[in-house]
Every structure is written in structure tokens, then in C-alpha cells.
Amino acid sequence: MARDYKHQDIEHKWQKLWESAELYHADLRDDLPKKYVLEMFPYPSGSVHMGHVRNYTIGDVVARVFRMRGYSVLHPMGWDAFGLPAENAAIQQQSHPAGWTYNNIAIQEAAFKQLGFSYDWRRKIVTCDPDYYQWGQWLFLKLYERGLVERKTSPVNWCPQCATVLANEQVEGEGVCWRCSSFVEKRDLAQWFLKITDYAQELLDDLDQLDQWPPRVRTMQENWIGRSTGANVDFVICDAKGEESDQTISVYTTRPDTLFGCSFFLLAPEHPLVSEFVAGTPYASEVAAVVEAAARETAVQREGGLAEKRGAFTGRYVINPVNGARIPVWVANYVLMDYGTGAVMAVPSGDERDFDFARSYGLPIPPVVVPQGDPVLDRLRHEKELIDRDVLWKTAYTGDGVMVQSGEFTGMPGGKDSEGAAAVTASLAAAGRGQATVNFRLRDWLISRQRYWGNPIPMIYCDFCGLVPVPEADLPVVLPLDLDIAAGATLADDAAFYQVDCPVCGKAARRETDTMDTFTCSSWYFLRFTDAHNSQAAFAPDIADYWMPVDHYIGGIEHAILHLLYSRFFTKVLRDLGLVTFDEPFKHLLTQGMVLQDGEKMSKSKGIIVSPDEVLPKYGADTIRAYIMFMAPPDKDLDWSQDGVEGMYKYLNRVWRLVSEFVDLRVVETAKAEAEEGVQNCHSTTAASSDAELSDAEKELRHLTHKLIKKATDDIDRQQFNTVIAALMELTNALYDFKQQDSWAQSPCALRAIDVLLRMLAPIAPHITEELWQSLYGQTIESVHLHDWPSYDANLVAADTIELPIQINGKVRGRITVAADASEDEVAAAAQNAVSDYLVGKEIRKLMVVPGRIVTIVV
């Protein structure tokens, strides 16, 4: 066979043959167990980069291994195609988002095929295709029917650069947009929300089912859901004259045990009571200044303490329900309207932000929970009241301790979920002034987007009927493709789109012109893959139940909250709709590491990028795949190295030369028949005569082959693919050593070792192994990718002999080779004999055999 490894010819040849043979089509099989392997589908942002390649190579190796292990494997691919990048690119390039998107999809699909990814391309989905987003609209209507969709006016996150609203989860770091990194503003807008909070407790509880997810991801979701226990506490509002009114305002607190320390009351700048309290009063101008300044700050800056704490007195008071104290109401920029009720009971001795605020504005800081041994305890034995903690402490105390200055509760244990907290809550409930409450940090999912390139929201506004859902028979609401987006046209400018008749009364109405957050498209796509071309339903429930849940899901850690949380929510809603029977969409989650260059994350904007197009012509797809899998465990970052790529290319060339020489030295026509008989002789533990026919070198190669099958299999199960390749390199080296034997190519053990090498390398480097497999066994042999993953014999994994070092007084003085099953006495005798020169005239005080490891002698 050809001695030169012509990767381009080989890879192109087999890609065409696999496609024509429909090698990777997945169908429902009653005779095989199933596996659903899925990588998070890409956004068609342009050419494929090495981050893509790593993600999809990992998934492809997993899928190929499962096929060889006898599973029916669903491994599909599609594109998450709606979104701002396409719209912005179209504006910049004076084109249309559809053209830009479909052109990039074609580029990426061609690249994926060049890399040999084993996708069932029949199932390709593109979320901007009407036959996909029709069912996204249908799902929206189903959520609306269940009361899980709400339109309401509220403060929202507004990105001025993207000119659209963002969900809370899409505001990152110091309050910047997750896409463009612009600072996010707050605006009051009427928007559409999905009521994910209805599922907050179940989303939290079911994290316990996800034992095959990285703990880090589960913790991130747990923190984002943010369940806390506490109390809702009602404060009576005083009127403008300072007298108690019949109005109350409720706050949520996780520390009811600190209520006696509430020395002032805070409202968010956006709270509607603020303007009511200060209208026509001397306090209006100072309060207005705080409100205006807060509007220019992001929620993250305000809540996280990144902005300077500012406030103003409103001139009004509320009554503390536990002690009847009249406490002043302030407006403060660090209180957020969309968390809790937009009002906070300020306890400066127990909250650091309140402490700083109190010090800035000269407000009292009475200590109410202090640790054992705190000097406050001594002071209170001599003083009736202590109102300023700052005399003794320079910050708030937020931990557990003893309640002080707390009326009947003084002396009780204080702290979150403490005895004192429970007692205060019970007292409030008995007096009708509060109740125990569970609260969540999670907020409803804001899905409205004021942009064109997205899935239209299927709702209509009628002056007579109000909000009216688009009838299912009228779906999809098709996104018009004739708008001049580059000139700034939006759906709100397209009368042909928004002018409709009300489906209830028939009168003139207006269609919703907002589109849905693109995460609504990716929150159920894994279900559509199971039944991709169903024109009558989003998917057939029985087919979804066959393939789901996804057995192995692979993607970046950046999706830990957004995509993964939303997908879990959609799955639970679909279960409650009777469309699926499972609770969670993804069994096993692998979050792959990034691809770096010189320690930096690859970035197109920074010019730090390596494209497969730069590497494929010279080295080929198999080299890229094998290099990516070898250089780091899949969950760790990988630093791209051109020298490493060159080294992997040399390794594949070694494999090529090894097998080529073996084939040339062996009669191909008889190889298959000899293999069946020879492999049986070489690897059967029942054929007693075979051992006598094998040389020591053959026995060693046989042992190593089985040992490395076991190692590679175990490492595959642990998804440590880098050590799998290391095992294959070890087997390759052993075969090169074995070539020194006479007539090496006629040895059945050599054939078996090469057979194993190719089968275990096949999922990682599919093209070269397919070519060598055909050369080894003839053109009529079935594809290596349809053969079984090799199995090992546990009896042959154990070596016949082992080598042990001999240590005398801490120094290695010799080595012995003994039978693997030799007794300790036999090992001890052999060791003494091997180092007898060192023992002359010495007394052995201790001799210890550590089985399989070492012999230690003390003289």
C-alpha cells in the first residue's frame, strides 16, 4: 500500500463514502439501547473557530464510541440562528440578516463535514426557518394558556447599544450587556415575561437529580434561584402630619431577629411611594436628585456597592411593628425596585450597606445581635440603652449571636433561621403584622426584544377584545423578509405586518411587533431534533420519549445559568402539558474548557484566533481532532501550540507507516482468515497449546494490548480522552519495538494489536483509521466505525511476570523479574540472591515485600 499519508485525499474520499452510505443516520431501534449525544448548537456568526472545533470534536468522539459499543446513537446538528449579531452585521454590511445568516450556516456546515463529524444531517434544524419557529410560537401560546405568560410594565434592563431589553441573566459583571459589554440602563416598559418563578422550587429541588453535572454548574444555578427563608413584615405608614394611617408597606427580611435594630426605612428610587411622599414638600428636590442619579447607574453598581451610597430623607415615617418606634423613611440608591417589594427595613448594626449608609447620614446604629464575648454585653449591664454600635465596632456584625435590646426576646439565640428569628416571626403573625415567607432571587424571564431578527410574539392588541392570542391555525406568524434593516426599518414600521383583523371580533387590530428572546429558541431545540421534520406538531411525544433525555450534553460554562436554566424550565412545563414524561432534559453535562493562544482567550476582535482553514490543508482533520483531544482533559483550558499540532501529525504518520509496512509484509488475501484463527489463539485463555506456541515477546505484546484496552476503556468512561491517546501512543511504540522480531508481521498478536490500535483510534481520527482498516482487511470489510469497541480479557490484563526494585537501606541496589503470582517467600529469596554481593558480612534486620511494588531490606 502507499507509504505516503495523503490526508487530503483520504479525508475527502471517506467523507463522501460515509455520506452516501448514510452511515450516521439514527433511527428508532427496538433491538439496541439508545444514546443521545448533543453539543450546544452554534450561532452562525461566521467561520468556524477552534472553540467550535473543540466542542464538536469532543461530542463526535463520544458519539462514535457509543456506536462502537452497540448503541443506537442520535447525534444531530443545527443552528441557533436568530439574534442581534445577524441584525447588526446586516446593518454594517448594508445587507439582510437572512442572507448573512444562511451564508454563514453554509460555511460552518461545510467546515463540520470537512472535520468528519458524524452528524445525522437529515435532522438539521435552523431556528430562523418558519417550520421551526412556528412551533416556538405554538409553545408560547401553550404557556399563555397555562397562565405562564404575563405582560406587565416594570423597570427593565435596557441596552442602549443593542436598543433592546435584557433579562436579568443577560446583565453581566459590573452591569454590562452580555453581548456588547455596554452599560445597561433601567427603563419602565410594558414587556412580556415567562413566569419561571412558578417553577423556582422545583428547579431548585431537582438539582439533586443532576448528579452527572459539574458541581460548579449546580451551585451557580442554586445561587441564581436563591431560595431564602424569612418573614414578610408590615410597617404602618405615617401620614404627612406624622400620625399613623391605615396604609401599610410590607418588606421581606431573612433576619426578623434584627427588627428591634431597624432604625430607618428605605425605599428604592423607582418606588411609586417616593413621589407621593415628597410631592409639594421641602424634601422634593433632594429626593429628586437621588432618583435622577440612580437612573444613570446600573443595577449591579447599585446593589453590589460599586456606586457611592446616596440617599435623602422623604419627610415621612413608618412604625416599627415590634416596638412601636417611629422611624424615618429615606430613599436610597442601593435599594432595587425589582427585588422584593422595593422597600427595606434598614438594620445598620446587622447589614454592611445599611451600616455605611447610617454612618454617612448620621443615623442611629443600635446593636441587636452580638457574638458571645462582645463588649456590648458588658456595656448593656450598666447602660439602659446603647444606640450607637460605632462606638465599639467599625462595621456591621452579620453572624449568629445573642439578641440584645430586643424586648422579650433579649437573650435568645439570634441569626438566620435561629430560635430568636422564629420567635419574632411567630409574634408578628400572632399580631397580624407579618408571616413566615419563602423568597427567591429568581425573577420572571423577560423575553420581549425590540429588534427585528427574532421569533415574532403571536399576540394581537384589539381595542375591543384586549390581548388576543393568534389562533393556532394561523401560525406561523411569518417574519417578513422584505424590510430594509440596513436603513433602520423595524417591525413597528411595517404596516403590512402589524395591521391585522382581530381574530375574535373581526375589527381592525394591531399585531405585537416585539420578538422573543433567542433563548426561547434554544430552550427546546433538543426535542425538535428527535422529530425534526414533523409538520403536524413540535415533536411526537412517543418519539421524544424514546430519545430523551439527552444522555451527554456538551458546551461552555458560560451557559450555566441562561440556557441550561431556561431549558430545564421549558422541559418541566412541557411535562406538565403532557408532552413529555421526564423531569430534566440533560443527564450528563460536560462543560469543556476554552481554547487559548499564548494564555489568552481567542477573540476575533483582538486578532487572537486560529481558524481550521489555516491548519486543515497542511495537517488534515484527523490531526486537528487528535491534537485537541490529546493536549488537555476536555473540561480544562487548552493552549494552542503549533508545535503540538506538528507532533500529532508526526504520530499519525507513524501509525500510517506501521500499518502500511505490516500490510505489505502480510498476504492481504489471507489476512482476514488468519486473523480469525490467529486472534483466537493469541487471546484465548482456554487454548492451552497457544501459550506454548507464543514467544516471550508475543506474550508481552498480548499483555500490553489487553492492558491498554482496559485503560483506554476506563479513561473513555471518565472522559479523559488525553490519556486514551497516550495509551494508543504506548501501544504504537510497543508495536515498533515488536518489529525487531523475525517475521513480526506474521504474528497473530501483532495483527490483534494493530486491529485494536485502529479501532480505539477510530473515534478520534476517523479517516486515517478507516483507510488503514480497509488496507488491513480488504475493501469488502465493514467500516471500522461499525465494528465493536475492542474488549479485554481480565486474565490477560494481569502480567505473567513483574519487575520489582530491591532497596537496601533506602538505596535501590538491584531489580528482579518474578512470576506475577509468586509468593512473598519466593520473592524474598529471589531478591536476596540478586543482591547477595551487598549482603556479604551484613545482618538482615528487616526484609519487607510490598506485593507488586518493591522489596525493602534493612541491614
What does this entry show, briefly?
With 859 residues, the chain is of the alpha+beta class. Helix content is 39%, strand content 20%.
Principal-axis shape equals: globular
Task: Characterize the main sheet.
Answer: 7 strands, mixed
Helix content: 25-40%
The residue-averaged pLDDT reads 91
- Taken as a percent bin, the fraction of beta residues is 15-25%
Q: What is the first-to-last residue Cα distance?
A: 61 Å
Q: Structural class of the secondary structure composition?
A: alpha+beta
The parts where pLDDT drops under 50 for at least 5 residues are 675-679, 684-689
Could you please describe the fold and organization of this structure?
- With 859 residues, the chain is an alpha+beta fold.
- It is 39% helix and 20% strand.
- The strands form ten sheets. Strands 10, 11, 12, 13, 14, 15 and 19 form a seven-stranded mixed beta sheet that branches.
- α3 (84-93) crosses α4 (97-114) and α22 packs across α26 (748-761).
- It is globular, with a radius of gyration of 35 Å.
- It starts with 6 loop residues before the first helix and ends with a strand.
- Mean pLDDT is 91; it is low at 675-679 and 684-689.
